[in-house]
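Design request, tokens follow.
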């Protein structure tokens, strides 16, 4: 947010303060100026007296917090121009740039507003090539240490300061980013041509302008959000206030603000009971955070106004309302976040910790991207299929299909890379048949299932292979299914046997070609897995196979040294294989 105000002549400091604090920041939590000696005044212990001439901010400084950007020449206390307030002002000049600054502690997530008044004095006029600004630079450590986390600048070209002796106010507001511990407030002077003139600054300020958030205590006469008594007498302000819930009174409550009224987040305090929020949709311009050990349920629809974090910091979060908006969702915290409705937000989904449960079909928006940097994304049992345009699973991360499947689209020219990535995730998860591995010999994490059934695994097929009916080129299907179900139709039949026969003893093969243990080859173990499920379906009902299929399998087994007894159609389910070791030797020789 950028603002410019102009004021000609001198004024009392109180007038400046009223203009900044009273008008712009009336809803702030801290109306206190966080800068030391903001008016560059003398007569204060430790501050210089410039009544006899300019006093430089030399290496012997700083005085009450001020420092030089380019010592010893770029910062002075002076009385050489009429002050905006008081008697002294700050002065800066140098080339190619100069400035004066202070470091101030900040709280990540709070909003800060930096401001100052500038003048182009006719007694030491700028030459027209300079620019001047107020800026805030956030750092991850105290006093400007650590990493820089971003800069916010309110820039004024010198053309805006050409009116001689006219004070101009600049201000800018910014939110301290995650991890921020300090900010550098700076009046910056850019003089690329080493031209003449000085920049004069006065009545600087840095104020925490984070709005005050009323806290729900349930003290009203009903369960409605617009009953002021439920918030201690003061309703949350839109759009500035977050919705903060605490205590155990009126845990089930109703949003009767107008639909999509915007609030700057939803927070459950550490002592909050198990709330259930219902009613009209909320415009969400902030994060949802559960700092309580009690599980929290948000049944209201959420319309995202920015990229949003759902943080299960101390307890679970159940987001049962539809989530919309052109922004992303990121989950934080070591507990469980559950999405319980079909959603349409379009910025993608990232899991960084804990577990994200997809509890409804479409809770992952169609054709969206998913990234799992740590933790687990779980498709709750029986939710069906999800369609994605991209997926990334870092080492240690896990996509748990339970008993569902996903369709993954890929762009032209990326088939080989996408296939290799997906196959690596599945290989990592397979882990000898456990299907819960999160790392392994392949890059990244795992795609598997937390269900434990020795007859089932996670198969995949690429539509470009032409094996799975209805799966188009440019799509990969990843599915919880029976071992041996090469074509992913939910049953193990002669068509699956045909896929395996054509690849027996060959390497470089995948699931839809008969490699059911992800070792890259089709061998006796894959044949065993298929025959063990022959005639079975995912529904549990037996599949009636033609007698010719059994005869073909029996003949194939005999011809390949499997020595298998393949049952007749009436007795599908008991299959005894002998001499599997001889198959292993035989297939290795044939590679």
């Amino acid at each position: 947010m950028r603002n410019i105000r102009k004021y000609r002549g001198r004024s009392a400091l109180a007038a400046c303060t009223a203009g900044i604090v009273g008008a712009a920041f009336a809803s702030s939590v801290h109306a206190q100026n966080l800068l030391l000696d903001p008016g560059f005044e003398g007569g204060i212990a430790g501050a210089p007296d410039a009544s006899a001439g300019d006093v430089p901010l030399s290496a012997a400084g700083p005085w009450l917090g001020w420092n030089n950007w380019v010592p010893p020449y770029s910062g002075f206390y002076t009385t050489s121009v009429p002050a905006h307030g008081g008697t002294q002002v700050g002065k800066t000049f140098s080339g190619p740039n100069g400035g004066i600054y202070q470091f101030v502690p900040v709280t990540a997530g709070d909003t800060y507003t930096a401001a100052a008044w500038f003048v182009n004095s006719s007694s030491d006029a700028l030459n027209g090539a300079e620019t001047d600004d107020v800026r805030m630079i956030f750092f991850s450590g105290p006093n400007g240490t650590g990493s820089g986390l971003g800069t916010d600048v309110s820039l004024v070209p010198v053309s805006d300061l050409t009116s001689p002796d006219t004070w101009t106010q600049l201000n800018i507001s910014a939110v301290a980013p995650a991890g921020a511990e300090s900010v550098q407030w700076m009046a910056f002077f850019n003089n690329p041509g080493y031209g003449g003139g000085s920049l004069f600054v006065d009545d600087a300020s840095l104020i925490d302008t984070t709005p005050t958030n009323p806290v729900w205590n349930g003290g009203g006469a009903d369960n409605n959000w617009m009953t002021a008594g439920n918030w201690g007498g003061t309703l949350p302000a839109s759009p500035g206030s977050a919705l903060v819930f605490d205590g155990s009174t009126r845990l089930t409550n109703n949003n009767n603000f107008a639909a999509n009224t915007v609030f700057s987040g939803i927070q459950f305090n550490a002592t909050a009971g198990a709330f259930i929020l219902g009613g009209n949709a909320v415009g969400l311009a902030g994060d949802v955070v559960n700092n309580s050990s009690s599980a929290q349920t948000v049944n209201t629809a959420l319309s995202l106004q920015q990229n949003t974090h759902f943080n299960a910091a101390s307890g679970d979060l159940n987001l049962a309302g539809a989530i919309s908006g052109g922004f992303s969702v990121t989950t934080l915290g070591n507990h469980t976040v559950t999405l319980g409705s079909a959603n349409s937000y379009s910025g993608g989904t990232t899991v960084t910790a804990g577990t994200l449960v997809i509890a409804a079909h479409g809770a992952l928006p169609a054709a969206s991207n998913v990234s799992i940097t740590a933790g687990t994304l779980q498709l709750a049992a029986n939710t069906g299929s999800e369609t994605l345009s991209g997926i990334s699973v870092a080492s240690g991360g896990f996509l748990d299909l339970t008993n569902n499947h996903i369709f993954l689209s890929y762009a032209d020219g990326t088939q080989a890379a996408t296939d290799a990535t997906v196959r690596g995730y599945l290989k990592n998860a397979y882990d000898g048949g456990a299907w819960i591995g999160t790392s392994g010999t392949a890059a990244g994490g795992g795609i598997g299932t937390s269900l434990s059934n020795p007859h089932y695994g996670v198969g995949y097929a690429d539509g470009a292979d032409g094996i799975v009916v209805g799966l188009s080129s440019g799509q990969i299907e990843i599915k919880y299914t029976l071992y041996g179900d090469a074509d992913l139709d939910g049953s193990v039949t002669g068509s699956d046997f045909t896929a395996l026969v054509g690849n027996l003893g060959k390497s470089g093969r995948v699931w839809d070609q008969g490699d059911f243990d992800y070792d890259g080859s089709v061998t006796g173990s894959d044949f065993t897995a298929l025959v063990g499920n022959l005639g079975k379906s995912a529904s549990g009902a037996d599949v009636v196979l033609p007698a010719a299929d059994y005869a073909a399998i029996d003949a194939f087994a005999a011809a390949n040294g499997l020595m298998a007894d393949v049952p007749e159609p009436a007795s599908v389910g008991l299959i005894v294989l002998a001499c599997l070791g001889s198959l292993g030797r035989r297939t290795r020789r044939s590679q």
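Comment from the thread starter after seeing the answer: thanks! The two ends are 68 Å apart (CA to CA).
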